[in-house]
Specification:
Blueprint lengths: L1 H23 L29 H4 L11 E5 L1 H7 L4 H5 L5 E3 L10 E3 L2 E2 L8 E3 L2 E2 L13 E8 L13 E7 L7 E9 L3 E11 L4 E13 L6 E14 L5 E5 L1
Parallel strand pairs: 5-8
Antiparallel strand pairs: 1-7, 2-3, 3-4, 5-6, 7-8, 9-10, 10-11, 11-12, 12-13
Length: 249
């Protein structure tokens, strides 16, 4: 008697899901209306990706057509990520790793496994020219527009560079339009920072830009504090249609 009851119950449990499944599959086809998406791209607008880099390649050739490995950290990335120093920025570049900086007293990196000189550390460029000669002081991001990294032996085009590649720092340039911004930041370990970016024309042929920053922070270690102050003025003089003179502090 018990065997018959068990067999009847088992058959019923098997049939019920099949009936429910067959009932659920009977649906009517629904036709959706067409959706049209229209967007206008602005080629002059900065974004996370740049298509050209004249300061690294020395040509106007698009990076897609360049047989070199170039990675650019744009101004939008710097602002959106809240980067305040060069080492924070290069953490997002593949092939670059931090080296011993003796507690943050200088910038020290390696590119594709090649580090710099033991005394002067890695060689870097600023706007296409040699930047560090001797002491490689830590750089603040207050006046950095973008960072371009040319990887591989192509960095030999710039003279005294590392076999792993070249780092080129592009600074913010004066503009003939008034643009002013003030930024306040706060974070862990009593981190406080204020910065200002001011630019505009002084005359029809003369423009300025001033980047200032003040930073104070402690550390996860006891009895360690640091202060940083940045004042970076720059001036642009349009001598004529084909000549201009730029001063960068």
């Amino acid at each position: 008697m018990h065997k018959k009851v068990f067999s009847i119950l088992s058959v019923s449990f098997i049939l019920i899901p099949n009936i429910m499944l067959s009932a659920g599959t009977k649906t009517d086809n629904v036709s959706l209306s067409d959706v049209t998406i229209v967007s206008n791209s602005d080629e002059n607008k900065q974004s996370y990706y740049k298509t050209e880099s004249t300061s690294v390649t020395r040509t106007n050739t698009p990076l897609l057509e360049t047989a070199q490995s170039v990675q650019i950290v744009t101004d939008d990335i710097l602002n959106d990520m809240g980067m305040v120093s060069l080492d924070d920025t290069l953490d997002y570049v593949s092939g670059i790793s931090r080296q011993n900086d003796f507690g943050g007293v200088w910038d020290n990196f390696s590119i594709r496994g090649f580090s710099g000189h033991e005394n002067t550390e890695i060689s870097m460029l600023k706007n296409g020219f040699a930047d560090n000669r001797g002491y490689n002081a830590p750089r603040d991001a207050a006046n950095i527009e973008s960072i371009e990294v040319l990887k591989g032996p192509s960095g030999a085009l710039y003279g005294n560079t590392e076999p792993g590649g070249t780092i080129n720092i592009v600074t913010k340039q004066p503009k003939f339009t008034n643009e002013n911004s003030i930024t306040t930041m706060a974070g862990s370990d009593d981190f406080y920072r204020q910065s200002a970016d001011l630019t505009g024309p002084l005359s029809e042929s003369f423009a300025y830009r001033l980047n200032v920053a003040a930073e104070n922070k402690k550390s996860f270690r006891d009895y360690i504090e640091s202060e940083r102050y940045v004042v970076a003025p720059s001036f642009l003089w349009l001598i004529n249609d084909n000549t201009h003179l730029t001063y960068m502090g």
